Amino acid sequence: MSIAQSILDIAIAAAEGEGAQRILQVNMVAGELRAIEPVQLTFCFGIAAQDTIASAAHLNLEIIPVKGTCRQCEETFIVKDYDYTCPKCGSQEIQIVGGRELRLVDIEVE
User: Fold this and answer.
1) pTM score > 0.85 for this model?
2) Cβ pair 45, 27 in contact under 8 A
3) What SS3 state is found at 13?
4) Which of 18, 35, 61, 86 shows a CA-CA span of 20 to 30 A to 11?
5) By residue range, what is the domain housing residue 38?
């Protein structure tokens, strides 16, 4: 619920700063490592948005997969099933380079 409330607070502040009357859609990206459940976040966002300028807003959430780069061969790859092994050389010396994101991309207002 706290993540949904934070998203809502940011969106409302941005919309009001631009003189918007309603928020129609909030677009976000969240990395897989954030362990956000889209259905739960959408539900909490809807509850938090009641009686605000975002009461009819749709939360659009894109989940970004975990991405790693091998420190041995420099191969960049999508980590599947939390297997942090380089598919090219088999090394487990992996640097995480994606999948931790959590950001509001933009909002659509009226």
Assistant:
1) no
2) no
3) helix
4) 35
5) 2-65+99-109
pLDDT at 69: 98
| 78-109 tens-digit pLDDT | 999 999 999 999 999 999 999 999 999 999 99
What residue type is 9 in one-letter code? D
The number of distinct structural domains making up the chain is: 1
CA pair distance 26, 72, nearest whole angstrom: 40
Residues of the chain with pLDDT under 70: none
Q: What CATH number should be reported for the domain holding residue 12?
A: 3.30.2320.50
The DSSP call for residue 39 is: H
Q: Residue 14 domain-assigned?
A: yes
Residue 54 in domain: yes
Residue 50 falls inside a structural domain: yes
The answer to the question of residue 87 being in a domain is no
* pLDDT of the residue at 60: 97
| Closest to 11 in 3D by CA, of 93, 108, 98 | 108
